């Protein structure tokens, strides 16, 4: 099939680039298998350094300037489990834009229910199976092969290509992209465009994600004898009143708030609140018998996903207002709210150069327009837009999001090949277009 190319890109050049990627199909599979065989389980952060150095040595062999940056002092960084990241940079012979690919090397635990060994990297029926195959070692392999195909074709004449393998995305990304962004690795002076090959399906571009506010609410009362509860103040009953207000007032209000962001699935276009856990009263003794007292404390962890149209102060204020009403109803009750983690919503606009380049090649290769989506949860784009100054950042990569974190996780080989082509051609388009004004 002859593809229409942007005016800055020669169709014959793209055809040769795609032939090169097809010839690398087996290499793409082998690289994915090798990455899966590094059991980079988070927590605790196993095999991070071995995986980072495996990637770094491959990039260095192709001429990259490679750096290993440890997240010293970041959450969970220890000598036993160092938070080790790798960045490789390839420079053209002339100034130009930099396209950066970022992939997280950590995976969640395998869990139960597997019918294949989770860290073998088994290849069968056009798929590669294993923990992290979809999320996101197949995407990492596709990005690296896209870079190598561009180098093999001699197409990095101006500008730069970067790849970073980073840690801890599954636990917030603080020792990975968060740390690198704070250190300036995603500043606009260094990087122009960022592709994060998360598994969003190879015919879709993910523009961003909703915001999140995690918090712990603690309601306190007064301890008393369980046989005379009228002499105490039950924090559990106070929490019950708070939960009733959430059900009656806040949750219905959230359900009618809808964002302009193209979040998937459809339910994620609404503001949401999840109650992650609740703990009340005294710990049960070792014999399992109940503590004979009125509960003087009750804690609730909540997960509020908020929309780009919402204000964080208002999001917090809605919770505090309901808690104040509970406190006013019963003397002796009080509350505290402890923030656990907050990330603002972020979205790259559809007109951005990176989105337009990916859209063009998705449509050319699939024969239908690209679909724009936004993630219901956060990923490392949050750090790039929060601490870095790069705004042209999206998630695009192979794999089906629903398979992430599941037993028998897999990534399709054909999906990896076609997404490699899209990433390579979009990168070539951006390199040929030159550097936009800051």
Can you describe this structure?
There is one protein chain. This protein is elongated. It has 2 domains: 11-209 and 346-433, Zn peptidases (Aminopeptidase, 3-Layer(aba) Sandwich); 211-343, Alpha-Beta Plaits, CATH 3.30.70. By secondary structure, the chain is α/β, with parallel strands linked by helices. A hairpin with a 2-residue loop joins strand 4 and strand 5. It contains 10 helices and 16 strands.
What is the gist of this entry?
This protein is α/β, with parallel strands linked by helices and 438 residues long.
Task: Indicate the mean pLDDT.
Answer: 95
Give the number of DSSP strands: 16
Structural class: alpha/beta
Q: Counting H and I runs of at least 4 residues, what is the number of helices?
A: 10
Question: If you consult CATH, what is the topology of the largest domain?
Answer: Aminopeptidase
What's the main sheet like?
6 strands, mixed
User: How much helical structure, as a percent, in the residues?
Assistant: 25-40%
End-to-end separation: 37 Å
Task: Note the main attributes of this structure.
single chain, Aminopeptidase, Alpha-Beta Plaits, six-stranded mixed beta sheet, four-stranded antiparallel beta sheet, 16 strands, 34% helix, elongated
Fold topology:
Layout: H1 11-23, H2 25-36, H3 48-61, E1 65-70, E2 84-91, E3 94-104, E4 123-124, E5 127-129, H4 133-152, E6 158-166, H5 174-182, E7 193-196, E8 204-209, E9 211-220, H6 235-255, E10 272-280, E11 297-306, H7 312-329, E12 334-343, E13 346-347, H8 353-366, E14 371-375, H9 381-386, E15 393-395, E16 410-412, H10 413-433
Parallel strand pairs: 3-6, 3-7, 7-15, 8-14
Antiparallel strand pairs: 1-2, 2-6, 4-5, 5-16, 8-13, 9-11, 9-12, 10-11
Helix pairs in contact: 1-10, 2-4, 4-10, 6-7, 8-10
């Amino acid at each position: 099939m002859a593809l229409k190319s942007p005016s800055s890109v020669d169709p014959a050049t793209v055809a040769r680039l795609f032939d090169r990627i097809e010839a690398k199909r087996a290499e793409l599979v082998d690289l994915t298998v090798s990455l899966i065989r590094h059991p980079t389980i988070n927590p605790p952060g196993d095999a991070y350094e071995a995986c980072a150095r495996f990637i770094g040595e491959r990039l260095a062999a192709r001429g990259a300037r490679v750096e290993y940056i440890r997240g010293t002092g970041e959450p969970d960084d220890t000598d036993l489990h160092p938070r080790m990241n790798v960045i490789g940079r390839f420079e053209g012979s002339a100034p130009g834009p930099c396209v950066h690919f970022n992939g997280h090397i950590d995976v969640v635990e395998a869990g139960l229910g597997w019918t294949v060994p989770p860290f073998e990297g088994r290849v069968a029926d056009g798929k590669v199976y294993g923990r992290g195959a979809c999320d996101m070692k197949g995407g990492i392999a596709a990005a690296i092969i896209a870079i190598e195909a561009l180098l093999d074709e001699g197409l990095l004449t101006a500008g730069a290509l970067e790849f970073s393998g980073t840690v801890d995305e599954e636990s917030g990304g603080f020792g990975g992209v968060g740390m690198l962004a704070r250190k300036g690795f995603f500043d606009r002076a260094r990087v122009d465009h960022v592709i994060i090959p998360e598994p969003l399906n190879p015919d879709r571009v993910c523009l961003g994600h909703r915001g999140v506010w995690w918090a712990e609410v603690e309601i306190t009362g007064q301890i008393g004898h369980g046989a005379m509860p009228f002499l105490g103040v039950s924090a559990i009953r106070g929490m019950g009143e708070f939960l009733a207000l959430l059900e009656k007032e806040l949750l219905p209000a959230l359900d009618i708030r809808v964002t302009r962001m193209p979040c998937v699935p459809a339910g994620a276009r609404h503001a949401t609140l999840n109650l992650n856990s609740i703990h009340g009263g005294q710990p049960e003794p070792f014999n399992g018998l109940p503590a004979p007292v009125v509960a003087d404390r009750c804690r609730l962890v909540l997960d509020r996903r908020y929309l780009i149209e919402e204000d964080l102060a208002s999001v917090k204020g809605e919770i505090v207002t309901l808690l104040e009403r509970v406190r006013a109803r019963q003397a002796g009750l009080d509350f505290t709210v402890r923030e656990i983690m907050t990330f603002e919503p972020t979205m790259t606009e559809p007109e951005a150069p990176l989105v337009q380049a990916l859209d063009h090649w998705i449509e050319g290769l699939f024969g239908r327009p690209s679909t724009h989506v936004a993630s219901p949860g956060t990923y490392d784009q949050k750090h790039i837009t929060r601490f870095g100054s790069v705004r042209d950042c999206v998630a695009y990569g192979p794999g089906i999001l629903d398979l992430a974190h599941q037993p028998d996780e897999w990534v399709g080989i054909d999906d990896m090949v076609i997404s490699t082509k899209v990433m390579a051609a979009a990168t070539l388009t951006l390199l040929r277009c030159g550097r936009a004004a800051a």
